[in-house]
Amino acid sequence: MSNVNYERILASWNGSTHDSTDSLALKVFSGMVLEAFQQSTQFYDRTGQFISVKVIEGANSAQWPILGDDPAPSYHTPGVVLNNTVSSPRIKTASADVVVDEILVNALDVPFRDMEISHFDVLAPFATKLGRGIAKVLDKKIAILAVKAARTASVTSLHGGGYKVERNSSGSGSTLLTDGSAYQLSPRGAYNFRSDVASLAQAMDEKAVPESSRYLFITPYIKSVLRFEANFDGTNLTSVPVLPSTYDQNLNTSPNDVNNRVIGMLEGFKVIVTNHLPSGDLTGNSLTGEDAAIAYTSGSGTTGGKYQGLFDGSTQAGGRPVAVALCGADTGSPAIGMVQASGLRSYVEADERRNTQFMKAQMMAGMGIICPWSAGVIQVY
């Protein structure tokens, strides 16, 4: 069951608990911003670009067909009847089913007494936070599925699987790589990452993945690494860079803008910075808080669920992602499918029995992997 907490908005937070007074009442907030930064989503906001979305009614799942490799042509001798002599179908077919999850809810209770004696509005920013919390969890679910799609193995005659580029420690018992040791804040680190992105792009090129709709999601740390890219040939600093830096001083217009720290393109990928790539151990049925909302499909928790996985970099199978690539929705091969039984809903009412204002936001949707060959990951372990 989802938790609904009483929000004592006039009791001050001291770092571990709220006090029992109205310490925030009868004061004027001068120059203070209640909501300094709004968390935006990077995956969920772009569902039409690399995610296929279906709205369902009277069902709990939707199905996407998957067509295998193209059949090989052959020459024909005039007069000979064209006949299929192969015992099995020439085009292998399969399907991907995506099941809707249970209702994801975010709710609050705000006491009337606090609202009556407060001098600032909380209902509007609280409502924004509830809806944004739902979107953030969905964003992280999509990121997890993207990594798992990239890790998917090939299926003979059907698809070649996802794309992985890995940077790992060498030798038995070696210390596991961190993001900082794999991609240092130096020309070497920037060169390493640019080389890995190029390898990922090459793998997609060799499988004829369209170049027009490739997106690369990177962490803020990787964005900082890229500013060191110039003047490095892989071994030594040079007076002339082998490749122009992403932040070259002449790149002051779209798609890359050095003055605004904007990276628009990298090795053919449209670059998007995100804080929502998965990390840590998201397995088992004892997760709590936001991790539970991300990794489970219901309130009871599920072991081995579709959103669960190991992303802590402790093993090759559980590498820690530093970049995720997605593409394919506009060409009919999206990596991820989403089914919606109901969109984002919000509700506010006065609960007279409890003397509170009840607020909630909820959504009933589910996601799953459809075409793993449209996903890639760069990870360290």
Protein described:
Helices cover 20% and strands 26% of the residues. It is α/β, with parallel strands linked by helices and 381 residues long. The chain has one domain: phage-related protein like fold (Alpha-Beta Complex). α3 (123-150) crosses α7 (289-295). The longest helix is centred in the middle third of the chain and has 28 residues, at 123-150. Mean pLDDT is 81; it is low at 27-37.
CATH fold node name:
phage-related protein like fold
How many distinct beta strands?
17
What is the alpha-carbon Rg in Å?
A: 25 Å
Q: How far from one another are the termini?
A: 36 Å
Question: Per the principal axes of the C-alpha atoms, what is the gross shape?
Answer: globular
Runs with pLDDT <50, length 5+? 27-37
Largest sheet: 6 strands, mixed
Give the tally of structural domains: 1
The number of helical elements comes to 7
What letter string, H or E per element, gives the SSE order? EHEEEEHHEHHEHEEEEEHEEEEE
Percent helix range: 10-25%
Percent range for β-strand residues: 25-35%
Spatial strand sequence of the major β-sheet? 6-17-14-7-11-10
Characteristic key phrases:
six-stranded mixed sheet, alpha/beta, single chain, 381 residues, globular, five-stranded mixed sheet, phage-related protein like fold
List strands and helices in order, with pairings.
Layout: E1 5-6, H1 47-50, E2 51-55, E3 61-67, E4 93-99, E5 104-111, H2 112-117, H3 123-150, E6 163-167, H4 179-182, H5 187-206, E7 215-218, H6 220-225, E8 252-253, E9 256-257, E10 265-266, E11 269-273, E12 280-282, H7 289-295, E13 309-311, E14 320-326, E15 336-351, E16 356-369, E17 375-380
Parallel strand pairs: 1-5, 2-15, 6-17, 7-11
Antiparallel strand pairs: 3-4, 5-16, 7-14, 8-9, 10-11, 12-13, 14-17, 15-16
